[in-house]
Amino acid sequence: MGKLVVVDIGGSGTRMGIATKKGVTSIQKMSGVRSTDALAGAVGRLIGGGIPSAVAVSAPGIIKDGSVQLSRNAGWLVGDTVGKISSSLGVRERNVHVISDGEAHAMALRSHPDAKFGAINIAIGTSVGFGAIDSKGSILRSLTGDSWDLGNFELNTRAEEKSLWHALGGEFGFKELCKWADEDGMKHFGYRLGGFAVQMAHLFRPRTVGLSGGVIKHHWNRIKPGFYDEFSRLDKFGEVLAKPSVIVLDHEEAALTGLATLF
After folding, report:
1. pTM of the full predicted structure?
2. Domain with residues 105-254, CATH architecture
3. Phi and psi dihedrals of 133, rounded to 5?
4. DSSP string covering the chain, please?
5. Quick one: which of 135, 92, 126, 137 has its CA closest to 262?
6. What pLDDT is recorded for position 159?
7. Which of 9, 102, 132, 235 is such that its CA lies 20 to 30 A from the CA of 193?
8. pLDDT by residue (tens digit) across 58-70?
9. Residues spanned by CATH 3.30.420.40 within the chain?
10. What is the CATH architecture assignment of 4-100+256-260?
11. Is the per-residue pLDDT at 190 higher than 70?
């Protein structure tokens, strides 16, 4: 039987590995994967030749029915994404899975022993990824069937640029706040993140809120105070809104872990 390959195409590079019953192994990080042919070559090197039995791919952007509709960082995947990957890798289309990076991070909650569904997950890396899981543990998408892309969602913040991807994304918002000299910028970043989590909790009413991504992995201890100060605002709505638990996925392989649950 061929290997099960998981691939996370992100803003800072591409990660891939082999999914097994014990988790994801042989994880590699690489740059330069900017075409399906390059992806096929990288997968071939990962598995030592041959054809994988199935592949699951996550990518930044808007995804619907297995096709990337829009992507700022992986435009080469736009179109019949499943068909492109199937053709390049030699994998049957029914064994190719394509979801958004935000959804992949959210699916990692399925492997966490304390996660309760429905759940939402906020992934903070170079940008901001968002995913939602319904009460049965399946991906929940918008009413149009598109994956969530909340980059233009506006936060209530003193930031000059209030859009989510700019105010919270690591490429802009996090770097901006880290320059503060008169105040703990990371704590204020936590306030921004907590405020967004509160808004999403009101909207989705999840039982679990997950946090993941590179910024969370490396800086959670300094972000945490501001986050929980803001998140505590949910306490006053206890009669109508059960306060969700918070799970921190503080490892770099969250997306790969989530993709592995698709097999």
Report:
1. 0.95
2. 2-Layer Sandwich (3.30)
3. -120, 130
4. -PPEEEEEEETTEEEEEEEETTEEEEEEEES---SHHHHHHHHHHHHTSS--SEEEEEESSEEETTEEEE-SS-GGGBSSHHHHHHHHHT--GGGEEEEEHHHHHHHGGGG-TT--SSEEEEEESSSEEEEEE-TTS-EE--TTSPPP--TTPBPSSS-SS-BHHHHTSIIIIIHHHHT-SSS-HHHHHHHHHHHHHHHHHHHH--SEEEEESHHHHHHHHHHHHHHHHHHGGGGGGTTTSPPPEEEEE-STTHHHHHHHTT-
5. 137
6. 78
7. 9
8. 999 999 999 999 9
9. 4-100+256-260, 105-254
10. 2-Layer Sandwich (3.30)
11. yes
Q: Which amino acid is at 234?
A: L
Looking up tokens 């105070």, which residue turns up?
A: 225
Give the model confidence (pLDDT) of 92-141 as tens digits: 999 999 999 999 999 999 999 999 999 999 999 888 999 999 999 999 99
